Automatic annotation (TrEMBL):
In the N-terminal section; belongs to the NADH:flavin oxidoreductase/NADH oxidase family. SUPFAM superfamilies: FAD/NAD(P)-binding domain, FMN-linked oxidoreductases, Nucleotide-binding domain. InterPro entries: Aldolase_TIM, FAD/NAD-bd_sf, FAD/NAD-binding_dom, NADH:flavin_oxidoreductase, OxRdtase_FMN_N. Residues 8-332 form the NADH:flavin oxidoreductase/NADH oxidase N-terminal domain. The lineage of its organism: Bacteria, Pseudomonadati, Pseudomonadota, Gammaproteobacteria, Vibrionales. Pfam families: Oxidored_FMN, Pyr_redox_2. It comes from Enterovibrio norvegicus DSM 15893. One of its GO terms (molecular function) is 2,4-dienoyl-CoA reductase (NADPH) activity. Residues 378-631 form the FAD/NAD(P)-binding domain. This is 2,4-dienoyl-CoA reductase (NADPH2).
Amino acid sequence: MNSPYPHLLAPLDLGFTQLKNRVLMGSMHTGLEESNDGFRKLSAFYAERAKGGVGLIVTGGFSPNFRGRLHPLSAQFSSGRAARAHRNITDAVHENGGKIALQLLHAGRYAMHPFALSASEVRSPISKFAPSEMSERQIRNTISDFAKSSELAREAGYDGVEIMGSEGYLINQFICKRSNNRYDAWGGSYQNRSRFPIEIVKAVRERVGKDFIIIFRLSMLDLVEQGSTHDEVVELAKALEAAGVTILNTGIGWHEARVPTIATQVPRAAFSWVTERLKGEVNIPLVTCNRINTPEVGESILSSGQADMVSMARPFLADANFVVKAEEDRSDDINTCIACNQACLDHVFKGKRASCLVNPQACYETELVVAPATAKRKVAVVGGGMAGMSCAVTAAERGFDVVLFEKAPQLGGQFNLAMQIPGKEEFKESIRYFTRRVEQCGIEVRLNTEVNAESLDGFDEVVIATGVKPRMPNIQGIDHEKAIDYQTFIREQPALGGRIAIVGAGGIGIDVATMITEPENQTLDEWLQDWGIDKSLSHEGGLLPAPHYVAQRQVWLLQRRQGRVGKGPGKTTGWIHRKTLEKRGVELLGGVSYEKIDDAGLHITLEGQEHILPADHVIICAGQESVNGLVAELESKGINAHIIGGAEKAGELDAKRAIRQGVELAIAL
């Protein structure tokens, strides 16, 4: 039988060992590394991914010493005790047919504590603490610590280590002039600045022997000023190969870079060309990464020769069985990562456990367990949005008889609107996946169906997941022909004039502002140029001089609240939204009072002064209200209803909460 993805699923011979396919599960910090009983939960997490067929797993980052920790209580791997504790993880992976490497990460100046060390005393723009410059002794000790931790990783049963040399962490800080202004043997010339990573690799290889995987995460595109040039990247790659590296993994962008690299706005496989530029320069396998989330994308990259392996991290949060489904030619059954960052990176940066918006069981494998129901019951789920579908699917998986009611002609709810926002096209994948699961679980679906209490007689459990509707603020003239609510606008997409006022600067307002200022049919090359990325790699760090933008229309994004406008709900993506809107000339105004809408436009008061915004259209994005009128009707008939998603709490359009609520409720029924 021919393989559906012959390049993606081909084995990779490393000489002393073989990987069963070309898929690397990239490093992700989950928060379990430091939590109570975290290693038992981590073992279950990695075991599921190994069982799902991934070729090689890389753990979240562990520091080789105390000063390299990201936070004072962050994970460290430097003792026999740690090695013994990690045996649970490696045994679980090997028992399920997988291979796993431990990532060693020294935070350097990114450390969130006063003991931070770096190549020089140069504070990062995203750090609270200025680092101390490392002494010769500290450098030598750190090299030794990397080697010792690698040897311990082998004792712990790991198949290899990944040395984190990208993303702006310590090793990257030595490599680049941006953070290394030393004048000794570890600074100055590029040969001196790149000496640190080379000495680390040599020391590691000497301690672990020849038959142990060493992956080096090499920053091939820094995306910061005073970053490496392409020629320097090639020079270092060759030196790392000579020092004993088995696999070179691509790193894109420092954490302080002001260019999006993994958010949903980034086109799929947007940086595989970077890895391709290194092909032919070295003779060891190259891994490419960033926004690869389907087998088709991975196969295209490998078949075209851009890389030897593909790294996917968050896609394995979304679906542990990604590779198995690819092997079985069931791509449509994959729960696709939509790169929203909301439950993974946003959680980690807030000190919470990572999970996944579209798969709440990620990192909760031992807690959110879908067990067979003790008695079969009939469940009605009213509302076919994401909360309703997740609840219906999980209930059906438990063995309940489920009927899903939806008043619209299709399932998907608010995601049908979200997928039309530029940069959120991936949301259609979630509709596809959950709709597919509804079909596979044999759930009866009744579309175009308005439900009342009488129609729910005979059900043992009733779940209300009827979502939200736009909240219309009390503004004089809100019914003027210029005014339109966001749902109607996104659904019907009427022709707009050249001047648009948007009332409300929450997530929906930002989405609408993005939608109406998006360049038409933008290609990948145009997207790269839009963000100042030098595809020729002739500039340091891969950054072009700031381009000049010409606004296509005049847009005002307004909010009642004083303070920063356009921040957005996501901790790791809010800055992207704001920068996007600023580049496109959107005027961001906070502390606005709305007076009226009339033929002249939108009348506002700002800082005590009255203004008229001569808007051709006023799009209302002033929040949502829950649609749950059916609840009172059910209660009057003595029928107990469970309320989830937007019907329970409108707020922002919180799909993360909605999907998780659906799963949790179905497990609890």
